[in-house]
Every structure is written in C-alpha cells, then in structure tokens.
Amino acid sequence: MSQAPHPAGAAANSPAAFTNALPSYLDPNNLGPWGIYLQQVDRVAPYLGSLARWVDTLKRPKRTLIVDVPIHLDDGTVAHFEGYRVQHNTSRGPGKGGVRFHQNVTLSEVMALSAWMSIKNAAVNVPYGGAKGGIRVDPRQLSIGELERVTRRYTSEIGIIIGPTKDIPAPDVNTNEQVMAWMMDTYSMNEGATATGVVTGKPVDLGGSLGRREATGRGVFTVGVEAAKHTGMDISKARVAVQGFGNVGGVAGKLFAEAGAKVVAVQDHGGTVYRESGLDVPALLAHVARVGSVAGFSGGEVIDNDAFWGVPCDILIPAALEQQITEANAGRIQAKMIIEGANGPTTPQADDILHDRGILVLPDVIANAGGVTVSYFEWVQDFSSFFWSEDEINERLVRIMKGAFAAVWQVAEENKVSLRTATFIVACKRILHARDLRGLYP
Ligand SMILES: NC(=O)c1ccc[n+]([C@@H]2O[C@H](COP(=O)([O-])OP(=O)(O)OC[C@H]3O[C@@H](n4cnc5c(N)ncnc54)[C@H](O)[C@@H]3O)[C@@H](O)[C@H]2O)c1
C-alpha cells in the first residue's frame, strides 16, 4: 500500500503528520464556497483562546453523504440526480439546515452552507448544530409528479442520517412548504409513525408554525433597527434599497416601510424600479403577487439593473442571491448600512472594500437568522404538540434576535473587528466550548 508523504516539516508522529488540511474529495485548486468558509475560520482562530486547540473540528464536516436519486420521468425513462446531505457539526445539538434544489449545487457549496448553519445556529444560541442538503436538479424542468418523486426518493436515501433528534431539514432555494410536506410524509412512512418534527417550514396545517414565512424578513428588520440605534440612524427617515422582493426582501421592505422608512429602489429577476420619494410598498407587493416580478409596476421609474447599486440610500438589503456585492460594485454603494438577507451576498474582496469605506455590514450569519429561530420554535411546538400564537412567536423571535445582536456588537467593539468576524467569534466559541465539554469519543 502506498502512503501519502508527510506534510512538509511534519515529524512522523506529530498531529500534522496525520491531519490533511483538506478532504481528498475536494479539488484544492477549486475549493469553491468551502474555501471562503475556511478563510473565515482562519480569521477567527486568533480570538479563540484555549479553545483554538479544537479549531480543526470546524474545518471538516462531521458527516458527508452523497446519494444517487433515481426516478421515473413522466415519459417512462429513468433519470438519476446527485443528492447531498452534509452535517457539519453536531456538538451543540442535532443538525439543522435547508435543502436546495438547483442544477448547479455542488458538494463544496453544500459543505459551506452547512458550516454557515453551524455558525448561525450558535450565534442565535438555538440548540442545533449545522447541516445542509441539496440535489443537482433544475426543478423548473420537472413536472409536479417528477418533483414529488425526486423529493421522496432523496428523503428516503438520506433517511439513514436525518430525524427529529438527528438532523432536521427545512426549505431553501427552490424548495417550499409542499416539498417539506412530502419529506415529512416519506420519512414518517419509512418510520411507521407520523414524525412532524423531522422537517421545519411545513404547512401550518401539518405542524408548521405561524410566523415562519415572515420570520427571516422580521429578523432582518430587527437587527437593522438595533444597528440604527447604535449608529444614530433614524429609521423613520431612512431610504432603503432592496434586491430580491420574495420572502425575505418583501417582508423586510414591508416592515421598514411600516416604520416610516422610504423604500426607494427594488430589484428582482425582472428588473429594477426606483422612486426618490419612496415606492408604495403594499402596492408593489400586490403587483409582485399578481405578475411574479416588479417588472411593469407603474408606481416608479424603471432604471438599469446595474444602476441599482449606486442609488442614493441609507440602507441596502441584498435579499436575492449569493455573490451580488463584488469588487465591481462595492465602490459605488452609497448606503451607510448593508443588511445581508441573502446567504453569502458579499464576496470577501467586496467585504474589504466596504470595510475601508466605513460601510457597516450586518452579516448573513446573524441578520438572516430569524428564519432558523422560528424553525426552532416550530420544532419545539411539534415535540410538545402545543402551538403558540403568532404574537408569542414574534415576541420571542425579536427578543432572541436583539439579544444575539447585542452580544455580537459588544464583541466587535471589544476586539475592533467587523460584525462578521465578531459573529464567528461568538459562534465558534460556543461550538468549541461544547466540543470541549463533551470530549472526544471513544
Ligand atoms: N426564506 C428564508 O427563510 C431564508 C432564510 C435565510 C436565508 N435566506 C436567503 O435569502 C435569499 C432569498 O431567499 P427567499 O426565501 O426570499 O427567496 P424567494 O425565492 O422568495 O425570493 C428571491 C428573490 O430574489 C429575486 N432574484 C432572483 N434572481 C435575481 C437576480 N438575478 N437579480 C435580482 N433579483 C433576483 C427573485 O426575483 C425574488 O424576488 C436566499 O439567499 C436564501 O438562501 C432565506
């Protein structure tokens, strides 16, 4: 049997001789999103004190499952799709994180998203580890029956590692309440008992939680209000620009408008609308609900999509896709504050530019954690089969988001670091403290 040489300078029996920095299943020359996550961990390591001895735990997922998902297409042929479920860390509790259906999903992306879930869950202190799943499939190419078969076969394949006390999936890009209902049913059929707590983001009539749909946007608004208090910004006079007017961006825009802010620009996949004196947000939401996009809205002027990044505003909310704020547009952004509703909307290079320009970034790992917080409430309600009122849910959500944000703000001030690094410090310390208390098995 041939043996890999020891890393340069590592003595034969030193830990470095046994510990490869990267898993063999990733291409070191093309690490993808996992590479970005590793850079973020390296940035936080100097702040971890004695817990830094466990830091390698964060640099490798605990469990990585790749599954083949074969289904009958409507024409009778068989198609195979590649599926993943990655449990990054379970030191603080079961894995938790969404399932993404997208033709470009990669293992590296799912690994990074699972790790960011570990950070997010620890940052808001809900008792979960981090996990994520995905299938390389374009659901728009499937019939409803094919979508159901893909979902059920995938759920069955990952059924060996998920469960209400093991790992609890939820919706993410291109998955919704109906997909969660099929996942819950498939898992329950295999177990022989209805297990509502195996997924969150379910329909309310099937053990879902009131307030879950609005939770992420409400969390975005809550941290924005808290940051405004620290920076002396008056929300009722603020101008807001929102990219993505779906679940997250639509709800956040509505809440800012209700607080008196002017939503001056909104961009979605159909185009960009602008109105200096503020768009009529309820009318825009109704238009989007009717036609599927902001395109064609008569209450504002159409501007070029690229011009969106330079509109005069105080708050910018990216709530659409990854890697939207880049070196190409970070220098033009006029906002004083950016609230990351989307996951990973800012590249590390853009982050540095924004930092140098004194623009405050409220990072995704805290700003969009409202969704998983209410998912946690859903799971608790499913276990007790006792459901709370929407007011109770919103009140608890706001309390958790405010507390988590205050802790992150304080750590950022004490260490003179960005809010992103501060969130990583708070979260990584919690994860590694749990690791330390539990010790290594065997
Ligand atoms: N829904 C949640 O609870 C939740 C929680 C945490 C993070 N997120 C993240 O928030 C982001 C948005 O999720 P969502 O649930 O609101 O999705 P959604 O599908 O409801 O809305 C997405 C929005 O982005 C817009 N969009 C798509 N492509 C675009 C493009 N090229 N340019 C501009 N806009 C574009 C769409 O038109 C739509 O308005 C994602 O990154 C998601 O991972 C969502």
Automatic annotation (TrEMBL):
Q: Which UniProt key words apply to this protein?
A: NAD, Nucleotide-binding, Oxidoreductase
Task: Pinpoint the Glutamate/phenylalanine/leucine/valine/L-tryptophan dehydrogenase C-terminal domain residues.
Answer: 209-439
Q: Could you tell me which InterPro entries the record lists for this protein?
A: Aminoacid_DH-like_N_sf (IPR046346), Glu/Leu/Phe/Val/Trp_DH (IPR006095), Glu/Leu/Phe/Val/Trp_DH_C (IPR006096), Glu/Leu/Phe/Val/Trp_DH_dimer (IPR006097), Glu/Leu/Phe/Val_DH_AS (IPR033524), Glu_DH (IPR014362), NAD(P)-bd_dom_sf (IPR036291), NAD_bind_Glu_DH (IPR033922)
Residue positions of the active site: 132
Q: Which residues bind substrate?
A: 96, 120, 375
Q: Which GO terms describe its biological process?
A: L-glutamate catabolic process
Please name the CDD domains in this protein's record.
Answer: NAD_bind_1_Glu_DH
Give the GO molecular function terms: glutamate dehydrogenase (NAD+) activity; nucleotide binding
Q: Which residues bind NAD(+)?
A: 216, 247
What are the residue positions of the site described as Important for catalysis?
Answer: 172
User: What family is this?
Assistant: Belongs to the Glu/Leu/Phe/Val dehydrogenases family.
Q: What is this protein called?
A: Glutamate dehydrogenase
Organism of origin is: Hydrogenophaga pseudoflava (Pseudomonas carboxydoflava)
